[in-house]
Amino acid sequence: MKSIISSCIIMLTVLQIAAQEKQEIFFADPTIYVQNGKYYLTGTGGGKGKPGFSVLESTDLKSWASPAGTKGPAYMILSKGDQTYGTDGFWAPQIFKANNTYYLAYTASEQTALAQSSSLLGPYRQKEAVPIDGSAKNIDPFVFKDDDGKYYLYHVRFNKGNYLWVAEFNLKEGKIKPVTLKKCFDQTESWEATPNFESVPIMEGPTVFKLKNKYYLFYSANHFKNIDYSVGYAISDSPYGPWTKQKDSPIIHRSVTGENGSGHGDLFKGLDGELYYVYHVHFDSGQVSPRRTRIVPVVKQWDAQASIYKFSVKRDEIIVPVLK
C-alpha cells in the first residue's frame, strides 16, 4: 500500500508542477455537463467571492475558460438575489435538461432548491424563490430520471449525521412527494468512518444512474475535512433500494489518487464516449481549503457472475484542470 501511495504522490506532484505555470481550478463539489462538443464545469466556490455559481468551458477537460462570448473571470449562471433562493452556503450544483428547459439543482442556506433557464448558460432563476422541501434541512441534490419518466431527488438530510435519502420528485412543481421519502442506508462500512477526523456519520454527494435494470449510487463518506474523504458505490434493483454496498469501495481515495480528501463529485460521459468522475481534493497535505478540482477516467467492467458492472479508476491518468 505504501508503494502505491508513494507512486501516486509522485505522479500528482509532477502534474501539479506542470500546472503551476497556469492557474488551477478551485471548484469543490464539482459537476460537468456535456453539450455540443464542449464541457461545462461548475461547483462550490467558483464565484470568486460572489454568492452563487459560475461556469467554465472546455473542449479537452484540461484547459478551461469562461464560456465563449462572455466577459469576466467568473461568469455567473446563478446569483444570490436574482430570483433565487438562499443567502449563503451555495453548494453542490447539478445541471440537467428536460423538455427543452435547463435546470440547476443546488444547495443554499442548507436547503435544496431548483432554478431553471432556457439556456445552458443561464441565468438560472425561480418563479418563486423557495426551497424544494422546507420542512427540514436538506443538501446535495441530485435529480435522476428513470426509464418510465419518473423523477427522483437524491439528497442529504440531517439526523445526528448526514444521511442519503430519496423521494419521488415532481419536476413541474419542483417538490418532492413526501409519502415516498426514504432513507437509502446507514453508515456500515469501515471506510465510511475512519479516525483521522472525528465526526458524526457522514454520507453525501450522490450521483445515480441506471444500467441493465440496476441502479448505481455513487456517494462520498467521512467528513470533507478528513484525509480519508472518498467515493464508493452501492447497487439496487429499485430507485428506493435496498442498496448493496460494493466491497471494492472506495474506488476514489487518497491511496488511489495520491491526494487527501478525494471525493464529492459527479460522473459524466466524455466526448470520447468514456466515463469520467470529477471531484475535489484538499489544497495540500496540511490544508483543506480552497479545494482543488480533479478529473479521473472511470473503468466500467461487466461481472457476468454477479450480473452487475464493477467500477474502478485509471489512477495514472488523473487530470489537473487549469485555466487557459
From TrEMBL:
User: For site (Important for catalytic activity, responsible for pKa modulation of the active site Glu and correct orientation of both the proton donor and substrate), what residue positions does UniProt give?
Assistant: 140
Which keywords label this protein?
Answer: Carbohydrate metabolism, Glycosidase, Hydrolase, Polysaccharide degradation, Xylan degradation
Give a GO molecular function annotation for the protein: hydrolase activity, hydrolyzing O-glycosyl compounds
Origin: domain of life: Bacteria
For this protein, the record's PANTHER family field holds:
ENDO-1,4-BETA-XYLANASE (PTHR43772), PUTATIVE (AFU_ORTHOLOGUE AFUA_2G04480)-RELATED (PTHR43772:SF2)
Assigned protein family: Belongs to the glycosyl hydrolase 43 family.
Q: What is this protein called?
A: Family 43 glycosylhydrolase
Specify the species.
Arcticibacter tournemirensis
